[in-house]
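> call design_seq(struct)
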């Protein structure tokens, strides 16, 4: 347990209550100071460590395993203490520093998926602003769950998602009186990548499942050399970490101790340097840095195989909005993203456009 007034290393980004259900989104490890009145709040570090780098939807009984509250503590107030966030949209520049200024009404605030935010969203924004120079954008992407939570509590106009809204998202939105509008942007195709020197060029879905869950741990068991398999994956807060688990692993747990990365480029670079490596990536990163993509069940990833449904590991990218509070600027941007020019950009960036 921590001592009064000391700083502790914890990981929450949002912590708030909605009709008895508490959402805890954890994008990165940070250090926060405890309240000066130590009797009001104690933190069980073991429990916090056990949930680090994940997004959780926690019921009140479970949160009390994390926070032992001797006196009533407002959880929304605790979230504000940890993050310094107002109840409405963010104010000022999202990068922090200096005095905050109100976000202009013609600013589109986007939160959510790294898959969309790393390259695709900035490119779409840059092209959109050529015809709409007075519309500003506030873009911060950490994970799909981060965006969905921000949309629910009114901190963004658009949640960028590399997975469909899960039941917990829908339940929390309903409790808050929010109805989501879903806008399909295109598809993100997940390719399985191995070292370029690996003789394995094709895997079955069963083999992929067995490798990433740890049931197969040597390449010789799938026709390769007698080399130990090393798994590389996205960080647990990313939509792709969950998406690949759903698409390729039947929602079973990853093998113990995979090497985790914040980007697909990082995964591919690491696999390219490791003869026993295997990971996953987008199409535009898959065959770089000494790595190569393998076919799945004899099917290579392509626009045709994604649209036909033959390639198994493709996921739809989405923009979510609050149906009752869509700003005109946000609507215009989404309309551009799904327009002919927007879809051309989706393809140029290595994603699969809408059919």
């Amino acid at each position: 347990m921590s001592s009064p007034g000391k700083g502790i290393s914890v990981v929450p980004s949002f912590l708030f209550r909605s009709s008895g259900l508490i959402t805890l989104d954890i994008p990165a490890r940070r250090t926060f100071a405890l309240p000066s009145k130590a009797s009001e709040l104690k933190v069980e570090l073991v429990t916090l460590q056990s949930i680090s780098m994940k997004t959780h939807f926690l019921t009140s009984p479970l949160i009390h395993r994390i926070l032992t509250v001797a006196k009533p503590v407002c959880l929304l107030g605790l979230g504000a203490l940890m993050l310094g966030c107002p109840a409405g949209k963010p104010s000022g520049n999202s990068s922090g520093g200096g005095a905050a200024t109100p976000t202009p009404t013609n600013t589109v605030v986007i939160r959510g998926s790294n898959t969309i935010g790393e390259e695709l969203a900035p490119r779409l924004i840059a092209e959109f602003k050529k015809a709409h120079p007075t519309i500003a954008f506030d873009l911060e992407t950490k994970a799909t769950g981060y965006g969905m939570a921000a949309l629910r509590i009114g901190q963004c106009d658009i949640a960028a998602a590399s997975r469909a809204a899960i039941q917990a998202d829908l339940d929390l939105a309903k409790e808050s009186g929010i109805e989501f509008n879903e806008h399909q942007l295109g598809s993100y195709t997940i390719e399985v990548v191995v070292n370029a020197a690996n003789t394995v060029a094709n895997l079955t879905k069963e083999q992929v499942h067995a490798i990433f869950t740890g049931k197969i741990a040597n390449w010789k068991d799938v026709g390769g050399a007698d080399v130990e398999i090393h798994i590389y994956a996205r960080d647990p807060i990313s939509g792709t970490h969950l998406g690949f688990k759903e698409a390729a692993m039947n929602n079973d747990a990853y093998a113990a101790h995979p090497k985790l990365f914040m980007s697909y480029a990082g995964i591919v670079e690491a696999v390219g340097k490791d003869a026993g490596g295997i990971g996953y990536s987008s199409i535009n990163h898959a065959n770089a840095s000494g790595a190569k993509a393998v076919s799945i069940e004899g099917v290579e990833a392509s626009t045709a195989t994604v649209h036909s449904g033959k390639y198994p590991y493709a996921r739809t990218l989405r923009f979510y909005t609050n149906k009752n509070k869509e700003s005109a600027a946000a609507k215009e941007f989404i309309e551009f993203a799904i327009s002919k020019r927007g879809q051309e950009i989706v393809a140029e960036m290595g994603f699969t456009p809408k059919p």
